[in-house]
């Protein structure tokens, strides 16, 4: 990894600009949480009231002098800005402050580097880091910009900086090739699930909205969940059994955040495609968060970027236990279709309502009728029982089996097709209305 790992408690000064355009303004509270998640010990939080950022430092020269004095007075090692810095701004600030400077993108990348557990996750983080650092290499190599000379030092005709950039390009190309292989493997797995007619449901939402806690509660898994930003980084898939639907695949994915760095969206494309190819999205929302409407918009923006904005979606308002006077319930639209579910993943309140709503949304094309199964199709009868689709069984005078069934129509069509019959013809001939 390109960032040095620290034991924690690294002393830092946090710098936040006030008065910016609302479209690019960041949340100071969220900034503090990001720094805490990265392991920084914030010794000072500096608010800078500035409407027009400086091209050289982002902040004014007077504020730079104040920060310089504060850095030496508090003996800090790091200054973190709650904004995106250009490579030249970052370089100028490091020279002026005489310490390391990190911007918002670098901070989020560092958190991701700490959270990655799987080989794929580490590759994705490394790719984002390398692409971010490639424009900032001059910072670390200013003393090697000139061509070296002398006996034993005459190289192949490129500076150390050029050599480093070339090696970076090679490494980036290698990582992209390996991630492309991961992506093709994921595509193959998804095609297999489609052939088996297994629906996929993906949890999406703002970071720390409670996705992993909900995932654990629904699937009785033990995925790492914590009250911190980006606790989950690597995607996790589990099988979930739902009444009337059968098995579905539930995916827990990385949380989103306002102004999520584009490099991360690109690097995590293989992971985010689990959401882009889902049959249903569960948008987990922190019901107790004052800025929840803004967070909802940020999630929708990222879904737009990965091509998942138009997918069927159920909003899950989580952390109901932190609200007063609100009971678990399902909100429906004018047509009676579930649109919102109010639950508490922490206490388990309303989890049955989520299952009910998911069944309704995935089971819009359910087949419910009585099938007449002749004795020659006994295997079809046993398969219907194996799926748990049979509600009642009886026999008529001819000895045929009458089954009251309820199952997805696509599942019935698949079973009937195996018998060499056309599904529609079979249903018309053997269904008693």
UniProtKB/TrEMBL annotation:
Which GO molecular function, any one, fits this protein according to its record?
GTPase activity
* Coiled coil region boundaries: 165-192
The UniProt keywords, alphabetically, are: Coiled coil, Cytoplasm, GTP-binding, Magnesium, Metal-binding, Nucleotide-binding
Query: Its principal location?
Result: cytoplasm
Listed Gene3D superfamilies: 6.10.250.2860, GTPase HflX, N-terminal domain, P-loop containing nucleotide triphosphate hydrolases
A Pfam family that the UniProt record links to this protein: GTP-bdg_N
Which residues of this UniProt protein bind GTP?
A: 205-212, 230-234, 252-255, 318-321, 344-346
Binding positions for Mg(2+) per the UniProt entry: 212, 232
Q: Which domain of life is it from?
A: Bacteria
Q: Identify which cofactors the protein needs according to its UniProt entry.
A: Mg(2+)
Entries under PROSITE patterns matching the protein: G_HFLX (PS51705)
This protein's record includes keyword Translocase:
no
Q: Cross-referenced InterPro entries, in alphabetical order?
A: EFG_III/V, G_HFLX_dom, GTP-bd, GTP-bd_M, GTPase_HflX, GTPase_HflX_N, GTPase_HflX_N_sf, P-loop_NTPase
Give the Hflx-type G domain ranges. Answer: 199-366
Please provide one cellular component term from the Gene Ontology annotations of this protein: cytoplasm
Q: Which residues cross the membrane?
A: none
Kindly list the places in or outside the cell where this protein is found, as annotated in its UniProt entry.
Answer: Cytoplasm
Family (UniProt):
Belongs to the TRAFAC class OBG-HflX-like GTPase superfamily. HflX GTPase family.
- Summarize subunit and interaction data from the UniProt record for this chain: Monomer. Associates with the 50S ribosomal subunit.
Give the function comment from the record.
GTPase that associates with the 50S ribosomal subunit and may have a role during protein synthesis or ribosome biogenesis.
By what name is this protein known?
GTPase HflX
What is the species listed in this Swiss-Prot or TrEMBL entry?
Pseudomonas matsuisoli
For this protein's source organism, the top of the classification is:
Bacteria, Pseudomonadati, Pseudomonadota, Gammaproteobacteria, Pseudomonadales
Per the record, the gene is hflX
């Amino acid at each position: 990894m390109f960032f040095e790992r620290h034991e924690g408690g690294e002393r830092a000064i946090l710098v936040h600009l006030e008065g910016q355009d609302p479209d690019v303004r960041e949340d100071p509270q969220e900034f503090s949480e990001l720094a805490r998640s990265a392991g920084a010990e914030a010794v000072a939080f500096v608010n800078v009231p500035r409407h027009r950022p400086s091209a050289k430092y982002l902040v004014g020269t007077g504020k730079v002098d104040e920060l310089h004095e504060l850095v030496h007075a508090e003996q800090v090692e790091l200054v973190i800005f709650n904004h995106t810095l250009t490579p030249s701004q970052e370089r100028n600030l490091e020279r002026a402050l005489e310490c390391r400077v990190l911007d918002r993108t670098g901070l989020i990348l560092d958190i991701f580097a700490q959270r990655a557990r799987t080989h794929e996750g580490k590759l994705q983080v490394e790719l984002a880091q390398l692409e971010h650092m490639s424009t900032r290499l001059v910072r670390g190599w200013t003393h090697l910009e000139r061509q070296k000379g002398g006996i034993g030092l005459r190289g192949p005709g490129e500076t150390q900086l050029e050599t480093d950039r070339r090696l970076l390009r090679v490494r980036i190309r290698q990582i992209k090739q390996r991630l492309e292989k991961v992506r093709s493997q994921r595509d193959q797995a998804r095609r297999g699930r489609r052939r088996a007619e297994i629906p996929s449901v993906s949890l999406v939402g703002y970071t720390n909205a409670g996705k992993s806690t909900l995932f654990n509660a629904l699937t009785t898994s033990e995925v790492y969940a914590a009250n911190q930003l980006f606790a989950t980084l690597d995607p996790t898939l589990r099988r979930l059994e739902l009444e009337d639907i059968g098995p579905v695949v539930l995916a827990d994915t990385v949380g989103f955040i306002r102004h999520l760095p584009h490099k991360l969206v690109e690097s995590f494309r293989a992971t985010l495609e689990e959401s882009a190819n889902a049959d249903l999205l569960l948008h987990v929302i922190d019901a107790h968060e004052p800025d929840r409407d803004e967070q909802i918009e940020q999630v929708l923006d990222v879904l737009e970027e990965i091509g998942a904005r138009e997918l069927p979606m159920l909003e899950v308002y989580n952390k109901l236990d932190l609200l007063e006077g609100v009971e678990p319930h399902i909100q429906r639209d004018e047509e009676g279709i579930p649109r919102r579910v109010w639950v508490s993943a922490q206490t388990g309140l309303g989890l049955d309502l989520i299952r009910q709503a998911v069944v309704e949304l995935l089971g819009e094309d359910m087949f419910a009728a009585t099938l007449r199964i002749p004795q020659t199709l006994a295997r079809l009868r046993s398969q219907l029982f194996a799926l748990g689709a049979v509600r009642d069984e009886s026999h008529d005078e001819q000895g045929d089996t009458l089954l009251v069934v309820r199952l997805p129509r696509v599942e019935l069509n698949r079973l009937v097709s195996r018998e060499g019959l056309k599904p529609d013809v079979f249903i018309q001939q053997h269904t008693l209305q």
